[in-house]
Hints:
The complex is a heterodimer of chains A (642) and B (309). Chain A is built from 20 helices and 22 strands.
Amino acid sequence: MSERNYWTRMRRRRMSRRTLLAASSRAGVGAAGLALVGCGDDDDDDQQGVMQAAPQQDQPEPQPAQQQQQQTMQAQQTTQQQQVEQQAQQVEQQEAQEGTVEAIERDETDVDEEATEPEVDLDATVRVAIGRYTAGLDPQRSGSQTNYVNGACTFDSGMSNHPETAALEPNLVEAIEIVDPTNLIMRVTPGIKFHSGAPYTAEDLQFNFERVAGAAAYHEGGEASDHSNQWATARGTFGTTNFASYSVQDELTFLVETPAPNASLAGSIMSGAVRHMSKAYVEENGDEFVDTVNAVGTGPFRFAEHIPDVGFKWTRYEEYHKGRDALAGPRLAWYRDLDVEIRPEPLAQIAGIEAGEIDVVYNLPTDVVEPYNGDDRFKVLYGPASNPTHYVMFNTHESVAEVDGEPNPFLDIRVREAANLAINREAIIEGLLTGSEKPAYGPYAGTIGYPKEALESRYHGYDPERAKQLLAEAGYPDGIDIDLHIVTDFQPIVPILSLVVQQDLEAVGIRTTIVEYLSSEYFRTVRTFEKPGLFWFFTNSIAEPETVIGSGINENGFYAVSVYPETNIQELYIAQNQALDPAERAALLEDFYVTFYENYSWIFLTEVSAATMTAANVNWPVGSAELRGEGTLTKIQKLRNA
Amino acid sequence: MQFVNLLVVRLIQTILVVWIVVSIVFIVSRLIGNPAQSLLPFDATNEEIEAITERLGLNDPLIEQYGRFIVDAAQLDFGYSFHRTGAAIDQVGSKVLGTVKLTAAGLVVALALGLPLGLLAALRRGSPIDWLARVIAVIGQATPSFWLGLMLIFFLATRVDWFPTAGAEGFRALVLPAIALGLLSAAGFMRLTRSGMIDVMNTDFIRTARAKGLTERAVILRHGLRHALIPVMTILGIELGRLIAGSVIIEVVFSWPGIGRLMIESIFQSDYPTVQAGVAVIAAAIALGNLLVDISYRYIDPRIRTAEL
């Protein structure tokens, strides 16, 4: 293989940065460290989904045996978790019977030491390290909204998603009733209280939809805000902008009229994109106070303290409206205090676990945790990254109908098919990723649920010879030269993965020049549709499909780089969004996804994983399939006597 | 009077340097993207982005933005941070102490290691101590500070629990970042002290001092070292700049709350006001540091007192 071949270099990349650090320290080779160790960049979005136990890296041949071992380990952890949950339930029952935690402690002292088994420490402090610091506490304000841990801990979303089906489950709103195609009734869950003690009512529901739309009366949509840094909404499309009219009927009932049937409305506005605040508290204290001093929500944790640039502290909200056995979303936490510490460098985060200063680090690049697989002082788990499904969009807009004076090659389906057949997804998954990822089939995260059978039976596969043939048939026997635009600071895997994609495409004759952008420039550039070529992109992991396809496939969407007027993709998109019957919508979505996939509308790449690492006495919610990290932090368990 | 005039000239030069640096940062930061995008989720609509862009005044012509910026910056008003609450200069100001503490500790490490080692190496020229000192100098200068920082964490904070792995609580938290930051400068000081001492110890006035019957200790410390320190003082200003610049990475590696970490975060968030305020403060600190070093020559070397600064 030539020097340019990625796979020969990849063997070196597969050594983690930390391994290299250790090795180079022993050998005293500073240059290796200089070349390969950088200040990591990560996305600390709290979105976590299915986590799987780490493969045992000390096995020389990691294939079937390793998988078996992985499954065994996963099963052991699941069993352990079940045991721990049972024990914790026993503890709770005991608390209920005897009335005090002290009683448990007294009992513990009586227990023979040999018989002591790990049990959940309900009074524990769990210390989490994250890389990205966002100071603001207002989950609806632009900028502050990226404080994802605060959003998930202090606040609640309207509804939660079922961990397996992604169906909407009660949270702040217990039900949405469809009166007719354009009228809905939202029923607020009774008995929910804010951390301030005030009840959550339909007035609060209305207030949050208004405020998130930038239409709250008290600050004139932000124009009259007291915030010294100004206030602008971060999620303008998730509120009353979707309503033709709305009104509070009584304390627990909110009526909404939509301009047209909108099947995706509930899934969008009830998602974690909208975190609910107390109307009375915000109006009384003002925007700056709730952003910088104190955050009051209904979430599973009360905000306790913010030390600028150092971290945040929360304590469990004992009156949280859902118990530890809740089906979906956040629940009463298994521990009392949550300390979140800001550590920008992933290796320093891991060092914190090694030194016993930190209990949990999540959303890590998978390579940095590899040396810890099989180390019984830690647990290493893999799961979908925060933007889990990656793909490459062809720019097929009229603005680039011609590329270098020739017709845009990607308007020819044979070229798009060739690009898809050029990608060796299995090699990427096995060689570059962790081995547990799946190929991408469409515009959704694999954890959300998709028409698996219909799509997997149509898998494009890897066939470079056929790809070359298709290119020749399309009139490109000498191949194509085109730009591949990528964003470098959004997910650490993108620059690496793009090299593999570049090489695979080049092997069939699609020669790409990688053009790199920072995210602040990239997303703006994508939206212009003016540059020809290929654009790297990824899904979010919100369950509602509209949040991806509305912007990325709907021909009016701001990321709809790949448009295909000659197909019925737009008709299917519109139809599914008007189908209020869930079964009918699911069938239309299946048609939509299959049509989009068979049209080779994008280069469908793969899912991408992130890693979580914990101390040995900490249980991360293995097996959780909840979306956008809803409740993940509440399910962490710290064990005594582990 | 001549000294005062020269001081004024150097101060004006310092202001010019700061102006040029922040102007470059102003232009470059406008080239690398729209901060509105970093304030919003990536799936924000075009209308939302446009609204924030307008609100931040980023739709105005660049020259208009620059004019506004320079007038305000002259009054130390760099605007409000896009991502943090309060004025950008206040954000930077709140981190000054952290960076000063780290930089000063790094300088102490550099001087405490570099000067004695250089002195010993010069006095024991060709001996194992000299050889060892030179090896340490080469390693110190060849080792990237962030790599050294990670190694220190790896060995001294996780393998043996002597120091915390991160943070800024207490004296122990300062030790590893100070070593990681100061070692490179220590190597430079060591080499300069060594070569300076070797040159000085062969001069006539040292022979005279010995002939006068002074003790060897007095000859070395009072006469030799004082002269050997002049080139060290010369690079002290440069090293100060290097230490401040190096603290940017060290603060990230050790999660140390200082201007450097603030700058890195602000760059990734396209927080122009904070980046501009931070660069202005760092540029001013380095320029003023060099000025102070220049002034201090007068007190170390009488020959310079009457010459131009």
